[in-house]
Amino acid sequence: MKRKIDVNNLRPGMYVSELDRPWIETPFLFQGFEVRTPQDIEEIKRYCIYVYIDTKPSYDVRLPNYFPDRVMPRSERVDKVDKPLPYVPPPPPIAKRNQGAHKPFYPDILSLEEEIQQATEIERDTRTLISAAMEDARMGRSLDGPGTRKVVGEMVDSIIRNPDALVWFLHLKNKDEYTALHSLRTCILALAFGRHLEFPKDTLTLLGIGALLHDIGKVMIPSEILEKPGNLTRDEFEIMKAHVPLGVEILENAKGIPPMAIELTRRHHERYNGTGYMAGLKGNEIGDFGMIAAIVDHYDAMVSPHVYREARSPYDTLKGMYEMRNAEFHGGLIEQFIQCMGIYPIGSIVEMNDASVAVVITTNRARRLKPRVALVLKPDRTPYRPSQYIDLMRDNPEDGATPLEIRKVLAAGSFGINPTDYLP
Q1: Would you give the DSSP letter of residue 26?
Q2: Measured between alpha carbons, how far is 394 from 297 in angstroms, rounded to an integer?
């Protein structure tokens, strides 16, 4: 249930579900967030006169006395579940090493257009390597540890030069090669995220090796379980979970696989509140690599099509993950991941304020609401021929017309649009 409230009556602990203006005109991550501090309230006052707060019992909202149907504090309610989830205190924000500095730790060295050819060759080599690694594991042969380090090192170099080029390959989908391509995409996501968090190059390499091989144990899981179109039974799920220890065993028997990379494989299904597997770790017990792996693995799984469901849009996936912060995922890391991906991740299909339709081409790492886009459909839904590329930060109309802005995100595949068709 939503209630309209003057911003002067906001209090910490309230959950803002709607603003009095389009949320894209504000700096807030999403329309839907908890007010945590007096500073949050002051920031809201800068943009809004009133807001709507969510009063449903899932939030500890304490409304002022002028609302007669005040929601009871959690301690006074009796609607408790039989087995409440383990409580984990909210973590402190993840601090980047360059926090507060004006100069980015990893400035873009090349443009997307300059890096895309090298990224294409690196992606091809990485896909070949992960396919060979899966075949080696399936046949009981040792994995090529040095070869893996070399290829991941090339991915790290590309990500450092400009992450947007490899990020475009997140849109490479093929249900028949799901595990291999999921491993590739998870590696790209982990490296882009690690770059955003300003990890040193050696750390990025370890993170990338672990992410690329995190699902290697799935080669030992029967295909009828991996490809089952419906829900798994309890016994089937236990078999599926075994891909974690099986993968750890494969990596431990290989030469040249770093222990930190193996730990990522061991912990990528752990969850911040302790509800994951295999060890039921929680909080910082999981470790940085494990918590990062959980985020990027889940994100790619949600935005990719499966035999049992369609893909979700990147925007909807990020919004859902934001709502799971401090529960399944580390809250500070989730907020950093959203900043890394951008409110409008690369490849998102969006509707503009003039009703035209566009594809997000590159993110804007300084102003996340103003990416570069390719205009695909005109307001009357006829195609642009050729597509028009617009930088929402810099390309302002000269005739005094209203500047183009993103109005909303559309579902993946809207109007039959394949984002990779519009890669510059």
Answers
A1: S
A2: 34
| Measured CA distances, 49 to 7, 20, 42, 266, 357 (Å) | 6, 7, 11, 49, 31
- Cβ distance 246 to 220 under 8 Å? yes
For residue 15 the two structure tokens come to 């959950």
**304 and 375 belong to one structural domain:** no
Claim to verify: residue 168 and residue 250 sit in the same structural domain: yes
Same domain for 197 and 143, yes or no, is: yes
Q: Minimum mean pLDDT among 34-38, 140-144, 183-187, 349-353: which range?
A: 34-38
Number of domains in the chain: 3
Q: How many CB atoms lie within 10 A of CB 386?
A: 9
Q: Are strands 15-19 and 383-391 parallel, antiparallel or unpaired?
A: unpaired
* Pair 410, 356: CB distance under 8 Å: no
Q: Confirm if 297 and 214 have CB atoms less than 8 A apart.
A: yes
Q: Are residues 59 and 135 in the same domain?
A: no
Find the largest Cα–Cα distance for the chain: 70
Do 146 and 253 belong to one domain?
A: yes
Q: What secondary structure letter does DSSP report for 4?
A: E
Q: How far, in Å, are 64, 215, 300 from residue 311 at the CA level? A: 41, 20, 10
List strands edge to edge, sheet with 372-377: 383-391, 372-377, 357-362, 349-352, 406-409
DSSP E strands in 46-148: the ranges are 50-54
In terms of phi and psi (left: phi > 0; alpha: psi -120 to 50; beta: otherwise), the region of 327 is alpha
Helix, strand, or coil (residue 62): coil
Q: Is residue 222 within 8 Å of 179, Cβ to Cβ?
A: no
Single out the residue of 56, 60, 55 nearest to residue 13, CA to CA.
Answer: 60
Range of the domain at 263: 113-341
Please report the sign of the dihedral spanned by the C-alpha atoms of residue 299, residue 304, residue 306, residue 310. Answer: positive
Paired tokens of 138? 């399936």
Distance CA 26, CA 48 (A): 9
Length of the chain: 424
**pLDDT over 90 (residue 308):** no
Task: Collapse the DSSP code of 390 into the 3-class scheme (helix H, G, I; strand E, B; otherwise coil) and give the result.
Answer: strand
Whether residue 150 sits in one domain with residue 66: no
Q: Give 42-88 as a 3 state SS string.
A: HHHHCCCCEEEEECCCCCCCCCCCCCCCCCCCHHHCCCCCCCCCCCC
Query: What six digits make up the tokens of 370?
Result: 């103003």
Confidence class for position 171, pLDDT limits 50, 70, 90: confident
Q: CB within 8 A of 123, min separation 6: which ones?
A: 166, 169, 172, 184
Q: Give pTM, 2 decimals.
A: 0.80
